[in-house]
Design brief:
Blueprint (H helix, E strand, L loop, with lengths): L1 H29 L6 H15 L6 H22 L7 H19 L3
Helix pairs in contact: 1-2, 1-3, 3-4
Length: 108
């Protein structure tokens, strides 16, 4: 159960960061309306708040979260942006997820 809660919170956190960043990207780089900045800012504030819900030392949490973020970003690339993943994307994220899992569950 702890595993599901931990990774679930990481994925929700990553979604908030990706959504906020993507909306800002759409406004500034793709010429979308300026009001895209408002939900972007709200989503990024939510992201910051969600990071505080993770147990443990902040820096260790950020390190582990980084791995989940990379995985989530590649899913975003595939589902939202419609880009195919390469075998290198998949291999790279597998290595990263192994590292993130070691950080998350390798408590001493």
């Amino acid at each position: 159960m702890v595993f599901i809660k931990t990774f679930g919170l990481f994925f929700i956190t990553a979604f908030a960061e990706l959504l906020g960043s993507y909306l800002m990207y759409l406004w500034l780089r793709q010429g979308k309306p300026a009001w895209y900045a408002l939900p972007s800012i709200a989503s990024l504030i939510l992201f910051g708040c969600l990071l505080t819900l993770h147990p443990g030392a902040a820096s260790r949490t950020y390190a582990a979260y980084g791995g989940i973020y990379v995985f989530s970003a590649l899913l975003w690339l595939w589902f939202v942006e419609g880009q195919s993943l390469t075998r290198w994307d998949v291999l790279g994220v597998l290595v990263i997820l192994i590292g993130a899992s070691i950080i998350i569950f390798g408590k001493s």
